[in-house]
């Protein structure tokens, strides 16, 4: 029986109790990686998600609560995960929040929160994880940016700025670690069909007086040429690929998963 490609690797995925983060965690576990799930809550349901990964894929899995807006908590997440599983060789920075408003009306506290969680946490967790990756002799850092890390939309100034920053940081880290057998890449999705997005569809249908298919094509995916959502499994499989031997020479690269959005 062949060994799973990521067997023996330990992975942290921030913001991973639902949506894209959980999808990534499941695909990494399917590939054999041990998993640390994370969010800012600490409920029985959170820990049950880790138990489900153990049951479904036969890997080690645990949940660690950490507030990604807090630099100390970001570092503590890596430290606790290392204590419980061993060296962390895969870090997926996925945690993120969004707020929409014109720049001149954008609340300062919302700007600060988006920068803290979407951008600064990527620095803090990466800084904490790199020494262990160097000691392990292998590492994969995958930052979940966005199509908005490559292009812009109105009223999303903080999100666009943070996601552009994530790509710049990804490139800088890649150059610093280029001879350390550690890669650093970014995945840039457009619309992904998560439970949160799915829940928005009925409301959009009411607002625009359209059926489901039309509101998806003409409103939600108006800028996405394929007119199809990406799935969390697709995003997860791209992360698995970036962690594979086949991707050893891919580093400092933003990978667009946007149905052609940024090709326009």
List the helices and strands and how they pair.
Blueprint: E1 10-13, H1 19-30, E2 34-39, H2 44-57, E3 61-65, H3 71-85, E4 90-93, H4 108-136, E5 139-144, H5 157-176, E6 182-189, H6 195-208, H7 212-220, H8 232-242, E7 254-257
Parallel strand pairs: 1-2, 1-4, 2-3, 4-5, 5-6, 6-7
Task: Offer a concise description of the structure.
This protein is α/β, with parallel strands linked by helices and 264 residues long. It is built from 8 helices and 7 strands, in the order E-H-E-H-E-H-E-H-E-H-E-H-H-H-E.
List keywords for this structure.
264 residues; Rossmann fold; 7-stranded parallel beta sheet; globular; 47% helix; 2 domains; 8 helices
């Amino acid at each position: 029986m062949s060994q799973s490609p990521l067997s023996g690797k330990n992975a942290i995925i921030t913001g991973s109790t639902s949506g894209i983060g959980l999808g990534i965690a499941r695909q990494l576990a399917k590939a054999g990686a041990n998993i640390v799930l994370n969010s800012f809550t600490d409920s029985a349901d959170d820990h049950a998600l880790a138990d489900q990964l153990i049951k479904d894929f036969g890997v080690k899995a645990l949940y660690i609560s950490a507030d990604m807006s807090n630099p100390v908590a970001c570092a503590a997440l890596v430290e606790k995960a290392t204590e419980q599983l061993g060296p962390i060789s895969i870090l997926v920075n996925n945690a993120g929040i969004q707020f929409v408003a014109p720049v001149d009306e954008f609340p300062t506290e919302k700007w600060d929160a988006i920068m803290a969680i979407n951008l600064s946490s990527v620095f803090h967790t990466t800084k904490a994880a790199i020494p262990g990756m160097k000691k392990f002799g292998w590492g994969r850092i995958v930052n979940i940016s966005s199509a908005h890390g490559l292009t812009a939309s109105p009223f999303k100034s903080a999100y666009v700025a943070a996601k552009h920053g994530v790509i710049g940081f990804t490139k800088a880290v890649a150059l610093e670690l280029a001879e350390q057998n550690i890669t650093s890449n970014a995945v840039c999705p457009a619309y992904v069909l998560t439970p949160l997005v799915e829940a928005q569809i009925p409301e959009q249908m009411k607002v625009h007086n359209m059926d489901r298919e039309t509101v998806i094509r003409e409103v939600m995916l108006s800028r996405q040429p394929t007119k199809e959502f990406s799935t969390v499994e697709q995003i997860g499989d791209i992360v698995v690929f970036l962690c594979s031997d086949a991707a050893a020479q891919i580093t400092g690269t933003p990978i667009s998963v946007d149905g052609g959005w940024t090709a326009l």
